[in-house]
């Protein structure tokens, strides 16, 4: 049997695939963060809470309204996005003129508030969300047993990431968005409604987090703590990718997922810090991040 | 006849102040200190406080003619915060005893502090055997369960049932190590072998890598030496990877009714676990469970039922001692048998350990559970003297011999 560093090749392939699945979540979450930071200059600490909210909305839709997974996949992100839009319009937009620190503090407080509320009503241990019937079960790939649902997560996240990237880099709406971050006053003088664009941007980022939450619901226990557990990693992904770089966030998300997966084979104890070690190395060698423009 | 009643009343009235002088500050005050917002908030949490209130009400609301008060606080699983609260309770709020104390690090810290402050602690929420081992204290008690009982129950009993090869998924901190170590000891003493283990970080959301390694090991039993959300995620993902269907058995070393409820029977079915209380085990426990359910909306697990028992026994001891002075109450707690809904014929060792039966449970299939919260089949009853380390072997310096 072929071995690398003393581990059979099949083990590596299995872990590679698992890393890719975790990377899918990192990519989708860091994409939303990067979009929000890139266009609004807000470090959105509430991103983890929005992710948790997506999972909970899907869960509540299933238990109280009988809405199945596929509808929840569309509806829950819309609900989260709408909530995001309201927050941006009524509160966050008032902070743009202040130091970016205020945005960070506000979103951090918001995250604590949302999580605390959910913990009060649902307890810390959370609730289960069933894998949708059509995606239940798994298949034997020869080197590993792949639950079909996890395969679906990879496909779905790739499609979503690609779509968002195209939206921002290749469409007219995207060009407005990018232009209004460069010079909002000039863009506004062309008759573009910049505040509305910023609201839409925050809603898009929030919706992406909500979508990741719905995708995660059948895999992880739907718990008020699920956002806190993942948000720090996602921040590291954005930093490694380059603050505000959309492509950087996507690619780095998948890469770090894989790096983490492989660490779990070699030295499991380090699997939760490997991402931060990489972050430290990248910051030393390329302070602007892998894909960041040198400031 | 009238004269007799009058005399009795006079005697009683005369006796009251005499007793009252024996109760410090004219109130018996119990503190329930635990995690109410973090990962163990369902494990004990606010429901433990309710359990304490229930015990006070069931006792009658007063002891030695003085009111009983229960205070509570959230220690956030941090030993320093817990120590500060405990100190404040003892120094300025006249708290006589602290109970619950979920999380081993917290329990050890508060127990050490209480030893210096000459106060009583009764731990129900923490697992480490250290509490009644090397770090035991004369006025401290360990009530509901410990890592040894979990290891004997889940580890030992499963080997008897044919699960003789094990693979551990262990949380990478002191609690995980001690659980793995003690379970390994039991598995090996029964003739089983441990084929491997992997240590995962605390609050690790994704277990698939570790589960694949466990699957590849071919072990008959996968032991989950972790707690709370980690165990839930591991079990949920094990179902996803078809581990139980593939013939391997999952053994959660610390898992209670609260977590089973959170996970749902679909994912938890077939799981083996050990608890020292199950509400639907007999009539008395069901009656208690239903009363508890009415107040809290959940059925009690061993931590909550244990807290009820601890508070009740403490009040009985105060009553029997005729005072709330630490030494006298502690002596009564050591000598009085424990008979309530939680423990039947329980005894307390010189090291402060409560010896009572623990139960090996199996989680029911969704179809077999016909009433809400009816989650367990009791597979085996393990007598207290087998479940817990004897005072002589505990390493507690207070035990002679």
Account of the 3D structure:
- The complex is a heterodimer of chains A (295) and B (401).
- Chain A has 295 residues and is mainly alpha-helical.
- Chain A has eleven helices and four strands.
- In chain A, the strands form two sheets. Chain A has a two-stranded antiparallel ribbon. A two-stranded antiparallel sheet of chain A has the order 3-4.
- In chain A, a hairpin with a 2-residue loop joins strand 1 and strand 2 (7-8).
- In chain A, helix 1 packs parallel to helix 5, helix 2 (47-65) crosses helix 8 and helix 9 (226-241) packs across helix 10 (246-266).
- The termini of chain A are far apart.
- Chain B folds into two domains: 16-145 and 282-356, 3-Layer(aba) Sandwich (Rossmann fold), CATH 3.40.50.2300; 157-275 and 359-387, Rossmann fold (3-Layer(aba) Sandwich).
- Chain B has helices spanning 2-20, 45-59, 79-92, 104-117, 147-160, 174-189, 208-217, 228-240, 257-263, 265-268, 283-296, 302-321, 326-335, 384-387, and strands at residues 28-34, 62-63, 66-74, 97-100, 120-123, 140-142, 165-171, 193-200, 221-225, 249-252, 272-275, 347-348, 354-355, 358-363, 376-382.
- In chain B, the strands form four sheets. A six-stranded mixed beta sheet of chain B has the order 2-3-1-4-5-6, sandwiched between helices. A four-stranded parallel beta sheet of chain B has the order 8-7-9-10, with helices on both faces. Chain B has a three-stranded antiparallel beta sheet with strand order 11-14-15.
- In chain B, helix 2 packs parallel to helix 12, helix 3 packs parallel to helix 4 and helix 8 crosses helix 9.
- The relative contact order of chain B is 0.13.
- Chains A and B meet through helix 1, helix 9 and helix 10 of A and strand 8, helix 7, helix 8 and helix 9 of B.
How would you summarize this macromolecular structure in one to three sentences?
Chain B: Belongs to the leucine-binding protein family. The complex is a heterodimer of chains A (about 300) and B (about 400). Chain A has about 300 residues and is mostly helical.
